[in-house]
Amino acid sequence: MSLKQQSLELMKDTLFAYKGNNFGYTELAIGVFISLGWIVLLEINSEFIAHSKVLKFPLLTAHILLFSFIFSEVVRFYAQLYYYRRCD
Questions:
Q1: Terminal-residue alpha carbon distance, the chain
Q2: Is pTM beyond 0.85 here?
Q3: Domains of the chain: total
Q4: Staple 80 to which of 11, 20, 66, 71, CB 3.0 to 4.6 Å?
């Protein structure tokens, strides 16, 4: 493998990593905004919790954030895998 081919392979790997990071962190930002919206909604209308049993789930905000983080990592790895498979 020549030096030029190695350089192109490294550039391709870097590009795929950037694309995967873009998708993953976009999903993470969406999850954070949903979580912040949840906190603001509860501060504005505290009686909202009393009407629904689903909303009484303990530490729901922490669960939303944790799920968003895990899901963003899955999306990031899947996007990288998708671009590697599509390139070959």
A1: 17
A2: no
A3: 1
A4: 20
CA-nearest of 67, 81, 85, 71 to 19 is 81
Q: Is residue 9 part of a domain?
A: no
Residue range of the domain that includes 36: 16-87
Long-range CB contacts (within 8 A, 24+) of 63-67: 64/31, 64/34, 64/35, 64/38, 65/31, 65/32, 65/35, 67/31
Smallest Cα–Cα separation from 31: which of 70, 58, 80?
70
Asked, for residue 76, whether it belongs to a domain, the answer is yes
